[in-house]
Amino acid sequence: MFTLMQLPYEKNALHPYMSDKTLDFHYGKHHQTYVDNLNKLITGTDLDGLSLEDIIVKTYGEIDKQAVFNNAAQVFNHNLFWQCLTPNQEEKVMPENLKAALVGSFGSQEEFYNKFKEVATSQFGSGWAWLIKNENGLEIIKTSNAENPIALKLQPLFALDVWEHSYYLDYQNRRGDFIDVVLHNLVNWQFVATNL
Ligand code: FE
Predict the structure, then answer these.
(1) How many angstroms separate the alpha carbon of residue 159 from the centre of ligand 1?
(2) Domain that holds residue 77
(3) I need a labelling partner for 100 at 20 to 30 A (CA). Which of 46, 64, 122, 191 fits?
(4) In angstroms, what is the span from residue 107 Cα to ligand 1's centroid?
(5) Is there a single domain that holds both residue 148 and residue 186?
(6) How far is the CA of 31 from the centre of ligand 1 (A)?
């Protein structure tokens, strides 16, 4: 049985960048529903008892396991997404090793922000933008719906949810504004750097 993760901050702590109303729905309803659906789908099956990551890898691309994959991946994706945000100013300070890795892979911190925004904005419809680590350094990718780096055998460092439910209450159709606000005001770069 999976349970909804505890948020590492209060639901009103990300104000004014992300409202408690958004957290109520996004964490309290959407994320909770993925957890509940996943539990219903795996109870009594051979997937029961496996880790989230194992379920994701085992069900990816399996037509008859698509619902399990979608819910398991969305639980994983949201778990990472919430951990990548913080209200704490100290955690928003980018560690030097991450800064150096971003400069090495993208040329400058500014170029990283620009590229990330470009990729996240251009994800057509529901999906995610990711900073991942590979053997050549850091890379930005986007995925559709629930698909994620775990399914693709890649290592995610940072997840940004660009489904409409992520920003519509606070930013309506302005996905680009939401991306800017998150990148510059909400990311827990200390946490992102721990997986570097
Ligand atoms: Fe979401």
Answers:
(1) 11
(2) 20-83
(3) 122
(4) 30
(5) yes
(6) 7
Taking the C-alpha atoms of residue 177 and residue 96, their distance in angstroms, rounded to an integer, is: 26
Q: What is the DSSP letter of 157?
A: E
Count of domains observed in the chain: 2
Helices (H), 123-174: 164-171
pTM more than 0.70: yes
Ligand 1 centroid vs 166 CA: distance in angstroms? 5
Helices (H), 45-174: 52-59, 66-83, 89-92, 96-106, 109-122, 164-171
Expressed in angstroms and rounded, the spacing between residue 89 Cα and the centre of ligand 1 is: 24
Terminal-to-terminal C-alpha distance of the chain: 30
Q: Are residues 158 and 179 in the same domain?
A: yes
Instruction: State the distance from the centre of ligand 1 to the C-alpha of 163, rounded, in angstroms.
Output: 6
Per residue in 9-55, pLDDT (tens digit) is 999 999 999 999 999 999 999 999 999 999 999 999 999 999 999 99
